[in-house]
Amino acid sequence: MTQPHHPTPSLASLGRVHFIGIGGVGMSAVARIMVARGIPVSGSDAKALPVMTDLAAAGARIAVGYAAGNLGDAQTVVAGSAIRPDNPELAAARAAGLPVLHRSEALAATMADDTVVAVAGTHGKSTTTSMITVLLQGAGLHPSFAIGANVPALGVNAAHGSSGIFVAEADESDGSFLNYRPTIAVVTNVEPDHLDFYGTAEAVYASFDSFTALLPAEGVLVACADDPGAKALAERTLARGNTRVVLYGTAADAAIRLHEDSGRMGISSAAGTFGLDLQVPGRHNALNAAAAFAVALELGVAPETAAAALADFSGASRRFEFKGEGRGIRVYDDYAHHPTEVRAALSAARAVAGQHKVHVLFQPHLFSRTREFAREFAEALNSADTALVLDIYPAREDPIPGVTSGLIAEHLGAGGSLVGPGGEAVQAVVAAAAPGDIVLTAGAGDVTAYGPQIVEALRIEAAGG
């Protein structure tokens, strides 16, 4: 069920490394850092992607399409989670007896000699990892980093830094975060998700306990006091008696505490109180910033430097990302694919919209997640003025009988309905929105492509087309 947890190999021991599925955002991140650290890297993917051109320019040997010959003289193979067992390169690697690593194992080897900050949680990982990285860069610490999303503020999703600090997004969805050896573990929240992998909520909680148990004697858990799951994890970790815990949030017992005074956000620690000016909206982003602030203090950054550096953060790609404007209507896109994330994204949209309306085009991701959370998705979507729901994006899953977007639709309020794909969805959004309103496309599938189409349709309409 879980990924194998072998002793972490050293980077040098991997030899020449071949990546199957190198164009993926997580795979390319590891490959990019290996190339920067002097490891001979090759890789392939089913189609040519811009990141592959970047990697080739950096010195990697890149092939488009899968063929056994692409392995060349590789000594270690890294296979992306989407790679099928019958992939010719994977089959050839296994036949040759080459070690085949999961992406997380390759990343663990890459950062084996660094001070590791691993960011875990059901939501907010990419944004929090990005914020920590931007903050540390602003403080002059130059960390290495690997993030599961492209980050406009950084220009790239991974880089080799010069400081011996490595900031990594740690994915709990398949248990692979247990391959890391963090010195600082950040947990933004703990909720049941990925039940297609874990089976039960209890198994999700147990995996986070295993994650905090990886911390060494001098390590620290940085956990959100405002999230019941993270708070409970912190209490269980403290009860084990061998790990220091730092809580952040608005709660009174948080060592790093967020507060608002006369509309201005502030952050307090034992070192004093500092103003917090964020470019990104929403309470969830303020909490992510508090996590980044806590990590910076642990790494010796002066609190006033940490607070000032957070003002440079302009958001992670597909996290309330501005796509354009037409007819006075602003369009944003968000990767939200869990009810809590949808609620947070719509809360941010509401803050930006002010007195105007919010319209969301939502695409459920995975049949299993839709089945587990249909009612919760509907309750989150009902906070929008208009909620249009597309068919389920299957991703890696086969259909489950009886599981459709209709399970969500039956709990939607007056502003909610199912909508067909393509032009039908675009026209439905355009018809619903008025000048000053906010449109949000949300989901982890190809719904992201709708934002530019909606902007284009709005501009054509505004021009009298």
UniProtKB/TrEMBL annotation:
Catalytic activity: UDP-N-acetyl-alpha-D-muramate + L-alanine + ATP = UDP-N-acetyl-alpha-D-muramoyl-L-alanine + ADP + phosphate + H(+)
Domain Mur ligase N-terminal catalytic: 17-113
Gene Ontology terms, MF aspect: ATP binding; UDP-N-acetylmuramate-L-alanine ligase activity
GO cellular component: cytoplasm
SUPFAM superfamilies linked: MurCD N-terminal domain, MurD-like peptide ligases, catalytic domain, MurD-like peptide ligases, peptide-binding domain
Domain Mur ligase C-terminal: 318-445
A UniProt-annotated Pfam family: Mur_ligase_M
Keyword NAD annotated: no
Binding sites annotated in the UniProt record for ATP: 121-127
EC number: 6.3.2.8
Ranges for domain Mur ligase central: 119-296
Keyword Transmembrane: no
Functional pathway: Cell wall biogenesis; peptidoglycan biosynthesis
Subcellular location: Cytoplasm
Superkingdom of the organism of origin: Bacteria
Gene3D superfamilies, sorted: Mur ligase, C-terminal domain, Mur-like, catalytic domain, NAD(P)-binding Rossmann-like Domain
EC class: ligase
Xref: PANTHER family: UDP-N-ACETYLMURAMATE--L-ALANINE LIGASE (PTHR43445:SF3), UDP-N-ACETYLMURAMATE--L-ALANINE LIGASE-RELATED (PTHR43445)
Function field: Cell wall formation.
Similarity annotation: Belongs to the MurCDEF family.
Name of the featured protein: UDP-N-acetylmuramate--L-alanine ligase
